Amino acid sequence: FIFPTENQFEYSYDKGAQWLYDDLYAPYDFAICRSDDDIQAEKDSIVADFIPYYSFDTLEAYKFVNTNSSLLEKTIGEKTGLEKEKADAFARSFKEKLTAIYGKGVIVQSDSQEYANAGNKIRVVRGNVSELDLTDDFYTKTSAKDEMLAMYMADNHVYTADSISGFYVRDFIEKTVFVTNVAIDEELNDKYLQSRIDAVPPMSGMVHRGELIIAKGKVVDEHSKRLLDSYKMQFENTSGRKSFWLVELGVTIVFLILFAIILYYSLKFGRRKKWGIRENMFVLLQMILLSLVV
Q1: Among 149, 56, 54, residue whose Cα is nearest residue 105
Q2: Helix segments in 49-185, DSSP class H
Q3: What 8-state DSSP symbol labels residue 138?
Q4: Residue 179: Cβ-neighbour burial (10 angstroms; 0-12, 13-18, 19+)
C-alpha cells in the first residue's frame, strides 16, 4: 500500500457509438485538442498560400549603373567621334535611364513551381520594409536591354543610319551583360514559413469547469470525441504528475525504513557478536545495493 497506483481513465468510448455513462461535466478547465489532420491541413494551407519574399539589392544596381556609364563615356570619347556636347548629353541620358531601370528593379526569372499558388505576387524587401508587388512590374534582363536600345534609337544625335557613332553605341549596349537586383530570398522564406508553421496552435478553445462534455445517450460524434480526447489527455497528465510525486515519496519512505532496520540490526547485534571489518563491510554493501535497487 506504500506504492500508489496511477489513476485510470474510467470511460471507454468510440466515435459513432452511444455514450452509455451519465452526463459528463468538466471537473476543471481544459484546452480542446485539435486533430492531427486539422493541424496538418492548416500547415498545408500556410505553405500553399505563401507569397514569397524577394530582396532588392541597391548596392549591386549602383555598381552596375556607375561602371557601365563610365564605360559608355569612354567608348563614345574614343570611338564615335561625337561632339563633346552631344556625347555628354547622351552619356547623361544613358545613366539616367539605366538608373531608372534599376531603381524599378531587374528581377531574376524563375521556372520554379514552389510558390505557384502565389501567381505573380511577390513581397519585395527594400531595407527593413516589404511591399506587395507583381513580377510583371519589374524588368527582366531582356526587357532592360530592349529599353536601353529603344532609348538609343530615339536619340537623333547618336542614332543615324550607318553612322560610326551609332554602331559603337549599339554594339556596347548589345554586348552589355545586364545583372539582376531583385532575387528570391530563400533564407527569409524558409525562416518565415517555419515560424508560421511552428505557430499553428495545437488547441482550439477551452472547456470550462462545469460545462457539459457529453450527455447520456448521445452519439459520440467528431466534436464530442475531440472533447473527450482532450479531457482524457488532461486527466492522464494531471494524474500522472500526482502519481509520480506520490511514488517518489513512497520509495523514499520504504528506503528510510529499510535503512533504519539494517542500521538498528548492525548496531544492536554487531556489538554483541563483535563483528569485524568483514561483517561490517558486508552490511555496508547490503545498504549500498538496497539504495541502488530502490
Answers
A1: 56
A2: 58-75, 84-104, 141-154, 164-175
A3: S
A4: middle
Does this model's pTM top 0.85? Answer: no
The strand pairing partners of 123, in sequence order, are 53, 132
| Burial 73-112, CB ≥16 within 10 A → b, else e | bebbeeebebeeebbeebbebbbebbeebbeebbbeeeee
- pLDDT tens digits for range 200-246: 999 989 999 999 999 999 999 999 999 999 999 888 887 644 444 55
Phi and psi for 34 in degrees, rounded to 5? -90, 155
SS3 category, 110 = coil
Specify the DSSP element, H or E, that contains 186.
Answer: helix 186-198
Closest residue by Cα to residue 135 from 154, 118, 157: 118
- Which is nearest to 191 in space by CA: 58, 53, 57, 44? 53
Q: How far apart are CA 183 and CA 54, in angstroms?
A: 5
